Amino acid sequence: MSGYSVIPVAGIGEVVPGDDVAALVLTALEASGLVLLNGDVVVVTHKIVSKAEGRLRPAVDDADYRSIIEEEAAAVVRRRGALMITQTRHGFICANAGVDRSNVPGDQAVLLPLDPDASAHGIRRKLEAACGVGLGVVVTDTFGRAWRRGLVDVAIGVSGVDAIADLRGTTDMQGRVLDVTEVAVVDEIAAAADLAMGKASGVPVVVIRGLGLAPGEGRASDLVRPAAEDMFR
Amino acid sequence: MSGYSVIPVAGIGEVVPGDDVAALVLTALEASGLVLLNGDVVVVTHKIVSKAEGRLRPAVDDADYRSIIEEEAAAVVRRRGALMITQTRHGFICANAGVDRSNVPGDQAVLLPLDPDASAHGIRRKLEAACGVGLGVVVTDTFGRAWRRGLVDVAIGVSGVDAIADLRGTTDMQGRVLDVTEVAVVDEIAAAADLAMGKASGVPVVVIRGLGLAPGEGRASDLVRPAAEDMFR
Question: What is chain B's mean pLDDT, rounded?
């Protein structure tokens, strides 16, 4: 393969409830002269998806914020001081049920989309119809990790590509069968996208071009480890 | 920013103990006509670093493999069937103490480098001296996650860039102070690199160009969460 490129899509302004994310992306692409190609993966930070879907709640003070988190969380896995490690209704384990107050105007908190896989799917269908190409769409959020400092972006919604590349049963360069090689491709895509988004630069969408992924039916829910496999709940 | 690109470095063959990884990279770059530029980040999968450093042990059967893991692990965090979740001497939490049998010739297991940050530093110094530019070097391994299925590449050795971009105290687009925004930039770099490496395609080195990172003194050991902060040991 000849490598790939990560292209930020500038010019998407503040998103408000009722906005059409795909339409905003298309307008920004047109303004920047960027044409989507077959096989491109469009990565969208969930914050603009949540805002467009009206997933906002008033949060004037810390008490409001905490009660929203408790309402959003399906379960609290750990609690230390103000930090809650939670399981969301989608099954994701993350801090504060994914409820966030940064990059939100006024005294509001932004919640995760109700069904981020469906959000990704809707955006993909509209972009594909408008551009006449096959795409992947990944919706991302920023998660911590149990044993590594610092946050990384991960996929919380997926459409058009596999979430996990299952290389089990294929062979390595030595002809040895690879026994445990399920790569979380869409999480690596989310991380790659975040490097071009920056945290405060206001670029909520990037296009990843040249990955050469086959079309797939993956969903971010494929990434949720079943409780029976979980050794650290 | 105008985006970035991820360029695989083809043509690095089987690496054996005593090889000079930087020299192998320079030869492969020259053969492919690729010239390193100031600010490039060179990402190297640890497997070729470990092989060059002679971090190989005979492992004819599963019993050999298990005894190497037990020797390499500083602590076993969880054990389920044949799977051991371990803490390595470096402080990383990962399966099987990072000991691996795929992509290794003959009946051998490959261990993690003794000091991957030092390995990264040595490679960087040689590449910088040969090319007359400032670089980052990241050495990677493939880790699982507690609550997400699938593996992702992470940084286990770093030189020339910060491991974590500390955005605490900066403001978002709304002027609100970002309270928790330490981004594990080098883990996102490792993930981005893996998308171009593939698992079985034999590309152990990629160049990431255009990230625009400032030079830094980071180390992968910065990513190890201190025991006092660990809620899931």
Answer: 91
